[in-house]
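Weekly modeling sync, notes
Attendees: S.R. (lead), two postdocs, one rotation student

Agenda item 3: backlog of single-chain predictions. S.R. asked that every request posted to the team notebook include the full sequence so nobody has to chase files. The rotation student volunteered to paste the first one in as an example of the format we agreed on. Action items at the bottom.

Example entry:
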Amino acid sequence: MTVELLIYIFVMALTTYLIRMLPFTLFRKRINSPFLKSFFHYIPYAVLGGMTIPWIFYSTGSLAGAAAGTVCALILSYFNRSLIVVALSSCAAAYAAQLIFTLI
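Predicted structure, as returned to the notebook:
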């Protein structure tokens, strides 16, 4: 390993640690504000959606395949299907849409 790689690993470890440690040091009292409670409740979902949704449409190389997989996933998750069913079905739908649209 090079020194540069070790520096990168150290900086990322420090960054990860600070992100996890700062809330414990900054918020020592119980949060009573309804706005802050709802804000902290929904932040993980918003960040996950913001990171995931754009890459769904770039992952397949085909907008039609990505749209088919997304629609399939949304419909199945609306009907409370398990995560594995949603993931496998949306992958199959994206693959089938790509096959269909490449044959046209």
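Discussion: group reviewed the output briefly. The first helix runs from residue 3 to 26.
Action items: rotation student to repeat for the remaining queue; S.R. to check formatting next week.
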